[in-house]
Amino acid sequence: xxxxxxxxxxxxxxxxxxxxxxxxxxxxxxxxxxxxxxxxxxxxxxxxxxxxxxxxxxxxxxxxxxxxxxxxxxxxxxxxxxxxxxxxxxxxxxxxxxxxxxxxxxxxxxxxxxxxxxxxxxxxxxxxxxxxxxxxxxxxxxxxxxxxx
Length: 149
Fold this sequence. Notes:
Layout: E1 2-5, H1 19-32, E2 38-40, E3 47-54, E4 61-63, E5 67-75, E6 77-84, E7 88-95, E8 100-105, E9 110-115, E10 118-122, E11 126-132, E12 139-148
Antiparallel strand pairs: 1-10, 2-3, 3-12, 4-8, 5-10, 5-12, 6-9, 6-11, 7-8
């Protein structure tokens, strides 16, 4: 997992060749106030979606094998938990079509508060639980970019 503010994004461009394009989309989406929807980024299966929702008191642990998640908060704030995949129990087997498996456990997980202008990047070994509230549910606008791992 990588956590940072938009200003330091270039520091991580060497991690994956698609990260620069992911952040270019985020920058454009914010600048143009793109509506909540799914967006295809290229002809290679990388995509993004813009979400607007209220944070929750509970969320499922999830992990992906094919994609890296870049989760950027446009407005609001949410808690995102993360743990190494080896520390949780898979409860819903991996669905290849949806690229997701669900887990339980998470004792000793790392908890991050991600605010407007900040992002978290989750890799296939990072089981994560995003969308959690800081005390009481509140509105969030978020961009999630999915790039091939």
